[in-house]
Design goal:
Strand order of the largest sheet: 2-1-3-6-4
Number of domains: 2
Largest sheet: 5 strands, mixed
Low-confidence stretches: none
Shape: elongated
Number of helices: 7
Helix content: 25-40%
Order of helices and strands: HHHEHEHEEEEEHEEHEEE
Strand content: 15-25%
Length: 287
């Protein structure tokens, strides 16, 4: 600023802010009108969850890539999340059933960040109640912590049936070290065909002969979950298989390490994970 430059009067700056606020409100109402036409075009509530994780994951990645300025990324993302979740709820009302066994406050933060306060939240102490509620209400959504909780057991077993709900997303869509709602959770629902994204398939595997060598064979799958099962050396595995890797190749490595395969079942899939680096770049997370 030169000596002859003078800052705009505060009143003028405040008028600019008011103009932008009004424009944002009008755009939200316009979005609502379009959603109203979308509802009429669909004619009726679709079967399964109205959640569209493939589209939403892409929207969140694009938001991160274009974001700049003094507004914190957390704020921008949370605003968009509330907008998306609220208009999804307007299209087809649903409830979110959340497993509080990993910590109620962390799960509430995660649910409110991603779905806001308009979508009803129902808490459960353990994944069993979450999955039972989703099975009884096809449009509802469930949140279960990615990391296993004490007493959780083989919680994903009810997802093995072909007609059962499935894992359809992994939240948050875009990870960062200081995420205000960074608890990793699986979103589970009865997926609509438009909702399926298979960057990472999730497989339920049952084996016999589990031990140190098979565990070492899974070392590269950092989010594989293993639960001992049966009276002897059986185990139930929840395996993430990212695009570009072969389930058969992983199973062959396990067999070579001494296990025998008892069963396999696809229990869902989710979008590829991305991380915001310290310099603000968006990079895929290896699995």
């Amino acid at each position: 600023m030169t000596r002859t430059d003078t800052p705009p009067p505060l009143a003028e700056l405040r008028r600019e802010i008011d103009r932008i606020d009004e424009a944002m409100h009008r755009l939200l109402m316009e979005r609502g009108e379009i959603i109203g036409r979308l509802i009429k075009a669909k004619r009726t509530a679709e079967s399964g969850s109205a959640f569209r994780p493939a589209r939403e994951a892409d929207m969140m990645r694009r938001l991160v890539e274009r974001h700049s300025g003094i507004l914190p990324l957390d704020t921008a993302e949370s605003i968009w999340r509330v907008i998306i979740a609220t208009f999804t709820f307007v299209q087809a009302p649903f409830r979110v059933h959340a497993d509080f066994s990993a910590g109620e406050s962390a799960m509430r933060d995660c649910e409110r960040f991603h779905f806001g306060f308009t979508v009803p939240l129902v808490g459960h102490m353990g994944p069993k109640g979450v999955l039972a509620s989703i099975a009884a209400a096809p449009g509802d959504l469930g949140l279960v912590p990615v990391l296993p909780t004490i007493g959780g057991g083989v919680w994903w077993a009810p997802l093995e049936a072909q007609s059962a709900p499935k894992i359809i997303a992994r939240l948050p869509f875009v990870e960062r070290a200081d995420h205000p709602a960074g608890l990793p959770v699986f979103a589970i629902a009865r997926p609509h065909p438009d909702a399926i994204v298979s960057d990472v398939e999730m497989w339920s595997i049952r084996v016999a002969g589990w031990g140190r060598r098979p565990a070492q064979a899974l070392a590269s799958l950092t989010e594989a979950i293993v639960v001992p099962e049966g009276e002897f050396d059986g185990a139930a595995l929840l395996l993430p298989v990212p695009e570009g890797r072969s389930l058969d190749g992983i199973l062959s490595a396990l067999v070579n390490a001494g296990v025998s395969l008892r069963s396999r079942a696809l229990v869902g899939s989710h979008a590829r994970r991305y991380m915001v680096s310290a310099d603000g770049r968006l990079t895929p997370v290896g699995q």
